[in-house]
Amino acid sequence: MLHELFTPSLQHGLDLAGxxxxxxxxxLLAVRKNFDVFGMAVLAxxxxxxxxxxxxxxxxxxxxxxxxxxxxxxxxxxxxALVFFLHPQVERIQGAVNVFDAAGLGLFCVTGxxxxxxxxxxxxASVVLGLxxxxxxxxxxxxxxNEAPSLLRWDRDLYxxxxxxxATMVALFIHFDVLGALTGTxxxxxxxxxxxxxxxxxxxAPRAWNRRSASTEEE
Amino acid sequence: MLHELFTPSLQHGLDLAGxxxxxxxxxLLAVRKNFDVFGMAVLAxxxxxxxxxxxxxxxxxxxxxxxxxxxxxxxxxxxxALVFFLHPQVERIQGAVNVFDAAGLGLFCVTGxxxxxxxxxxxxASVVLGLxxxxxxxxxxxxxxNEAPSLLRWDRDLYxxxxxxxATMVALFIHFDVLGALTGTxxxxxxxxxxxxxxxxxxxAPRAWNRRSASTEEE
Amino acid sequence: MLHELFTPSLQHGLDLAGxxxxxxxxxLLAVRKNFDVFGMAVLAxxxxxxxxxxxxxxxxxxxxxxxxxxxxxxxxxxxxALVFFLHPQVERIQGAVNVFDAAGLGLFCVTGxxxxxxxxxxxxASVVLGLxxxxxxxxxxxxxxNEAPSLLRWDRDLYxxxxxxxATMVALFIHFDVLGALTGTxxxxxxxxxxxxxxxxxxxAPRAWNRRSASTEEE
Lengths: 219, 219, 219
Description:
3 copies of one chain form a homotrimer. Chain A is mainly α. Chain A has one domain (8-200). Helices cover 70% and strands 0% of the residues of chain A. Chains in contact: A-B, A-C, B-C.
């Protein structure tokens, strides 16, 4: 099956790891918002599984993978338990969490794109769904936490661009019929490294020109 | 059919009653947020039908029941009319409204779980969808009203737990092949009573340990 | 096919125009919220395509049209580019944008209703989905921008009512078997003109009676 670029067990292990780190970011935001342990679990589940869930609803893959694989469902609960008991320690290794989150971003933009393509969508739509898979959970997380989505804000380091680049690479590999474990890994790594660089050098996307007046805008 | 635990007409009557009281809570929040009568109707519809709608999209039951049963659609409009004309009186009986809301919670966690199981989902996923059915509408209500979902906040009495308990009882009954009108009613009543107790004694779920410092947290 | 009331190419051209103006409103809100260019594109896409996307998920038309027609996907990007480079000029013609938005509202409430009916939904449900098609994108836009949905607020000119009227006209035309290019156009124009009048004369819907006390409310 195409969207299992790697061996099934490796793919599954990577998926679980990506879900776990995404869930950590959801649970951490829940703590910051003063939610209780159930709020933490809900936010962890939705952050980790929400992007894939939206993708699956759109491509008609029901019931979505999030509801058929008990492992997918369990990882966010494990992440919730970890943050519940060790919140200050997890906050302290926020830098490491961000690195893992970048890895999850890279992984999910690639697997999301391939899965959408397998379900018969066009290459452009598959790229969009790769982005949705990688970034949709974080948007749902922020909406539920009643915050403007981090993905949309100009004062955040680039998040969408690495995912778009990774997903576009997959689409090109599919187009040229060279998608496989090696090229798939290359796309994952490219998105991963781009996101790391964006965090390291605070790369940001521009805002609209001349937002207030022509003279005072130089971002 | 399994998810009609009771006779069809009793089941339908209970569904309509549950929808009505959920819709009341949506219309009341709309008044508090200063929405107009259409905002009230939209919030009433989404609060009452949103949880079942999400469940139906996830299990692939399209078009969702909310769009095929005119009664389901009409009850929130009736609730809107009631709140529109008699808002202060409805606010005054908020205690009674909360009791009915607890009954709706009990009912929907049970019917949601059974419907999901009928559509072929596993027991754990069915429990999750029971919770989604019972509490999802309230989350959508709060998101549309631009508030942090009541379900997630630590300063609210337990809401998810009674639904999870009721849904889990249903799953156990299914597992041991004893789900019927009697055991189904028992699950509904258990969730209902747990929610009443949670409101009466202000049971709350804990927040993460050591949120700020190790010394000042004793919740 | 029924929901192509007009010739396919005319229908498609109208759809694209409606999508474009809806996307403009999304991109403009993104600028006001200080989002970056990717946030603008996301908000433009969701404002323009979100209503139809929800409708398609509910009626089971997957993958939704938004993901199968590259033109639908491209228009919001064009709108984003326009607002990105010419934001002050677009703001200055906000009045014209609102007129086009009203035209989009009229168009989409009609096409949304007909498409839902084609997929086998009842007339009432089809009217609701016509409203969802026309107004759902704007609600998603406001939710993502972390604002109370404009659709629900009492201090906004009527938006839902023109769409409901247009959608209801379509349902009546279907019921009496007279829906065609002429009657379809009549419904579009009615909704369009009603919305223009609502903006011109600041028509608003009432809020609940006696919101605070019986004596101080006279809206």
